[in-house]
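Sanity check

After download, print the first record. It should look like this:
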Amino acid sequence: MKLMTLLENTGSGNTSLHHEHGLSVFLECGTKRYIFDFGPTEKSLENARRLGVPVEKADFLIGSHGHYDHSGGYPAFVAAGCRQPLVTGAGYFRRKYSVEGIKCTYLGNSFDEAFLKAHGIEHRVCRDVLALSETEFIVSGFTRRCEFEAPPERFVLRDGDRFVRDDFSDEVCFVHKLKDGLFVLVGCSHPGILNILSSVQERFRMPVIGVVGGTHLMEASEERIRRTLTIVKGLGLRFVGFNHCSGALFQKIVEQDPDINAVHLGTGQGLFL
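Expected structure tokens:
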């Protein structure tokens, strides 16, 4: 398996690449290719070109959830000829906002299902486990066991003339079966990284040995981060490629943990497993 971060919040040694708040990842698993999330703008595609990534040859494009920093670059990929099936969770196109006091900010997609239809793009919706190949899967519908992993109250959905709490039931993760366990790619982990990983382990009955992506622990306390790491190590976790919404405190703590091989994956950085 090969993984390359097309775009992330931070740069890397390749200063020709754009970086901005968001996430986009390219994966090769055997003969299959996947684009997971698209960043907020066309810069993810521009980076893919500079990295020599054959986006037109991807088998599937996957949207982890309907926030702009993960979906906004999708129309640029379509304009570049990517007409492969788009895989998302149910509710990907619901209107997402952040509300703080009397101020609201739109955080959702810049395109809709009519855009997909106009470009002849198949939309596949994952409601539990969706097989993309014999070894790659999309998973949604995570069991919410960890009470301390509830999404922040500021994240809401527009429901007619009112706002309702966003439970991020649209969020999905990518799962790849390795010989000795599962690799999981996450977008923002709004349902909770522990809820996601424990649900994946239960469904596949294999240990989760690696995870890459955003853990959404950027606002978490040191106590919560350490508790989270203790629990995920019990699932079999050996390596973490963290970025995007994981946060500086998480980076500091996980990089000091002797039981986990942890690396930050900035723009233009990846893994070869």
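If your output differs, re-run the checksum step. Summary of this record's structure: The longest strand covers residues 2-7.
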